[in-house]
Amino acid sequence: MLFTNSFHCCRRIFIIVSSIGILLLLHYNTSTTFTSQKAFKNSNMTNLTTPSTKALELLVTKNITEMGKLSCSTISTKQLQNCSIREYRGRIDITMEPRSIEELERKYQYLQPGGHFTPTDCKALSKIAVVIPFRDREEHLKILLNHMHNFLTKQKLDYAIIVVEQIDGQIMNRAKLLNVGFVESKKLYDWQCFLFHDVDVLPEDDRNLHTCPFENPRHMAVALNKFDYKLAYEGMFGTSSALTTEQFLKTNGFSNRYWGWGGEDDDMYTSCRYKLLTLTKRDWSIDGLNSLSYKLVNITFKRLYTHILVDLLEEKERLTIEKEFCKEENEVKSYDK
């Protein structure tokens, strides 16, 4: 994987930590290599004590306002053979020069609205939603759209790129944006697989199949150029992770509690972070999809991607978190004054 930004090391490390938090009970194999695509063979998700998958599915689909659907191919897949990839190049060229949206729309004019692609000559290998948390990274987004559409189309996937953005004036909450992306994407299409992918990371090898093993989640970015193509640390699961719908429901999604990282944190919330991390394992079954609150502002089906804009209700939720988990820290600070 190619990391396209070298100026956000501190913030990216905590992004990854927040992703790991909700998967602490999954014992996966971090010996995965860049090209071998070994799955996480040690996970035992059936033993997890979770809210029922059925209950979460009802939660996801309850009170849906029909805003539109991603279009489906009019060709009957019953008459088609399963897709197969006959040629792999291995390492592929990376274009780091951002192109204009207009140029990209001309290049990928075969895409259906919402950045949706379905192969017409065979049955797709997988139905995958690529969920991108986004804020103020226009140049990175253009590079990613150009690279990923070319990459995923050649892998014969039925896919769409879903860009999830929160309104201005709120501290970034990557994990909550990913939860929103999952919930809203499920309303649009019958996805089998969800790829949660950062905007500044690009796959460099076409043998890195972007599909979801049904047994266990898959970490797609075990080798980043930023870390000399090694795993940054044992247990890393961030930047690009693939889970089936069932797997994501069983883990109850990501924690909604991680507001801000790095320089965006205020002093008080930084002092609370480590306490929140220790509570994640205990509270993962009640903090995630089943506690997700947000206000959908709009969904726009662009040529290159589906854009979801949301209000994450930051002020209300942060006050609740600070009251519940940071009481001791606040009392100490008040006493010191």
Write the CATH architecture name.
Alpha-Beta Complex
Alpha carbon gap, first and last residue: 48 Å
Order of helices and strands: EHHHEEHEHEEEEHHEEHH
Strand content: 5-15%
**Quick one: how many beta strands?**
10
Instruction: Tell me, briefly, the overall form.
Output: globular
Q: Summarize the amount of helix as a percent range.
A: 25-40%
Tally of alpha and pi helices? 9
CA-based gyration radius: 20 Å
User: What is the fold named in CATH at topology level?
Assistant: Spore Coat Polysaccharide Biosynthesis Protein SpsA, Chain A
CATH superfamily, by name, is Spore Coat Polysaccharide Biosynthesis Protein SpsA, Chain A
What is the makeup of the main sheet? Answer: 8 strands, mixed
The CATH class is identified as: Alpha Beta
Protein name: Beta-1,4-N-acetylgalactosaminyltransferase
Organism: Dictyocaulus viviparus
Function: Catalyzes the transfer of galactose onto proteins or lipids.
Subcellular location: Membrane
